[in-house]
Amino acid sequence: MQTAIEFRNIRKAYGEHVVLDGFDLKIAKGELVTIIGSSGCGKTTALKMVNGLIEPTSGDILVNGENIRDKDQTALRRNIGYAIQGSVLFPHMTVEQNIAYVPSLLNRRDRTRTRAAVSKWMQIVGLDEGLKNRYPAELSGGQQQRVGIARALAASPEILLMDEPFGAVDEITRGQLQAELRRIYEQTGITVLFVTHDIGEALRLGTRVLVMDHGAIEQYAPPTELLRHPATPFVERLVEKERRTCRLPEEQLADCAFSGAAGGAQQEDTQAFL
Prior knowledge:
39% of the residues lie in helices and 24% in strands. By secondary structure, the chain is α/β, with parallel strands linked by helices.
């Protein structure tokens, strides 16, 4: 299978504080990788290295087989969508203008194509067309997050980076956004890296889960593999609550619906652990 993103012997240090060291990872094209781990373990640092927002101290990062050190950073980022918690929309722009921001740069002479892209992605992320002319301050938190996701996808990137994008919305809206993200992923086949602090969310969304601790990889595997065969004591403690929630024998864990994130108490337990 083709590799979309590769980290080669990555080290990142701020002075004497080492965030990542000897970080090696290959992510196949079309995977939805959820990333979880202890606070300060390097999750967001690794994510931001993919689109050049953070440079490694040493080592190489390849996107679609090309070293990003050799690529124009603007061109690199146009092919990588980026969505973060709170969506960070342009407050002076309407919904339509926010979503159209990158497509309008790419299609300067074709406004019809840009408008079509806006309508397409608004529909895909579940935004009513009637919201086009509203400003971010006039939207709910869930609507703002949907606009942020639509903006990240509007240029049809091959890779989507998401840093705790649903952390600022209520539990019901969060569940809806999770379902919509999974649907978008299945429709587009895009490669997604999704940072979260919620193990239930990580297990439910990811085709593979990357567990990190103190700048190192503890395990990188499909969700069922983490539940059945946690590779380290850290992973075992992390997934223990989910294993109990499933209430299934060991051999039936593959049938687990990973429903843990639906309960606020469980999320609190996970956060306390992290």
